[in-house]
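re: ur question from yesterday

yeah so i grabbed the chain u mentioned. its 397 aa long if i counted rite. heres the sequnce exactly as i have it in my notes:
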Amino acid sequence: MMRILFVDDEVNILRAQQRMLMDMTDQWEMVFAQSGREALSLMAEKPFDGVVTDMRMPEMDGADLLNEVMRLYPDTIRIVLSGHSEHELVLKSVRTAHQYLAKPCDSEQLRSVVGRAQGLRGILADESLRGVVSKMTTLPSLPDHYRDMMLQVESEEGSMNVLGKVISQDIGMTAKVLQLVNSAFYGLAQHIGDPVHAVRLLGFNTVRSLVLSAHVFSQLADGTAQIDFAGLWDHSITTGTIAKRLAAAEGCGQLFQEHALAAGILHDTGKVLLAVNKPEKASVIRFLCAGDAASSPEAEKQAFGTTHAEIGAYLLGLWGLPDPIVEAVAFHHRPADCVAATFTPLTAVHVADALEHARRQAPGPCAPLAPDAEYLARLGLAERLSIWQNQCLTGVQ
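ran it thru and got these structure tokens back, copy pasting raw so excuse formatting
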């Protein structure tokens, strides 16, 4: 049973939430607080799995509350419940909230968000590692990308198209803009997977606020784990490009192609998280981030008790990215473990990752990664591999 804390200074809203969720009492232990101070006092007495908070409250607003929750209880799921008129407050919480819900929020939507977060815990069983990942407010960006982004947002002639292109070339920036644009706060009819599309929808001024006011992007510190991050970024962006081409070759629609692109860009997010948070294991991480080490999940499990795929999927799932993206990240090295029996963004990313590694043919102790032949045969796609190689690698740098 999950323990969920609801926080709102209006007692009538808390009562309405309690009535709305009455049928969840067999799955959730729900506690209600009328202020941030009361919420922190309750959390000090007994831990909670999740906090759902209003933003506009006296003394301590929702953003300040979530800052404290993240500092004191990093493993707790942090959800904002806010009105569309509170745009500035939502931007204030963009670094600390995992997800954003818009008022009025129906019970089904709230159940879905909390239930999904609960299910994600099974991906990452290690509590301490969950805490480390949950505390991540942003993924660091390459210094050159960060500089180019800053030039755009600080320039009076900054271009939205150029800014979108810069963001689409960076793992950390892509993850964060997709987190925000796919949140219920923006109420879009369908999920977005293309970072350039996301920037257009958010608008230049919103992205500028994220950069300058919310400080939602950060750059990698010099010498982080002494890893070739530029190579990792290049592999990830190219994998996304190939995955999108694979989806197009199979006649998939625009949204499917966007999901394949985003999942390809983000499939090695877990490696970035490990490098930033586990510098004491720099030699292991260097090996794992090398282009020839993609087929070494055993080495990751021995060092960290899990793999970069599960770590990345856990974070992206907490951030509310669409299920096809999270699924592709989680299973990109073992697609046969996924129940889907058709071509999905996972299929595209799994094959694209393998083709990209083989294309590089980096020397090293590990054999080049190959697509799972049994998995492709199960989907009736084994004969498509040579066609994909010819069609989708053409022109890739």
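noticed a couple things. The CA atoms of residues 129 and 311 lie 8 Å apart. also The domain at 2-120 is CATH 3.40.50.2300 (Rossmann fold).
anyway ttyl
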